[in-house]
Write a structure and sequence with these properties.
The protein is α/β, with parallel strands linked by helices and 138 residues long. It is 36% helix and 19% strand. The chain has one domain: 3-Layer(aba) Sandwich (Rossmann fold), CATH 3.40.50. The chain has a 5-stranded parallel β-sheet, with helices on both faces. Helix 1 packs across helix 5.
Length: 138
């Protein structure tokens, strides 16, 4: 059975900064690992647009949220998603500093990576979460 028969993984990407969204999308490419199917990235610049997408019943495999986004940061959104969604998909937070790992833990995110985004670390973290592996920080 070839990879092409597997449905694409659905990744939600949230950041108010288009350069951050572009850096993340570029780091993820079309597939984060050879053993995983290709993915589709749904980009959101506002929390309200992200919530409308989620509330519409979309099947989501991974959330990647920018903890530095304004006016609504990804950590608060992550916490809300985890509190409100049954079987919420894993959350990968992008944080501003290594010292923000405790905030990522508060938000109930499964993993976090820090700015500036290292493409290898981000892709590996996303792959582990898409496989169902529990991470803490990268």
């Amino acid at each position: 059975m070839g990879m092409s028969t597997q449905p694409k993984k659905q990744i939600v990407l949230y950041s108010d900064d288009s350069t951050v969204r572009a850096a993340i999308a570029n780091a993820l490419g079309n597939r984060v690992a050879s053993d995983l199917p290709e993915h589709k990235i749904h980009e959101f610049a506002t929390a309200s647009a992200l919530r409308a997408f989620v509330d519409g019943g979309a099947q989501i495999d991974l959330f990647i949220l920018d903890g530095e986004a304004v006016p609504e940061g990804g950590m608060g959104i992550a916490r809300q998603l985890k509190d409100e969604l049954f079987n919420c998909a894993p959350v990968l937070l992008i944080t501003g500093r290594k010292e923000d790992a405790w905030l990522a833990a508060w938000s109930m995110a499964e993993a976090s990576v820090i700015h500036p985004i290292d493409p290898f670390t981000l892709a590996n973290s996303a792959a582990e979460l898409l496989r169902g592996t529990k991470l803490v920080t990268a």
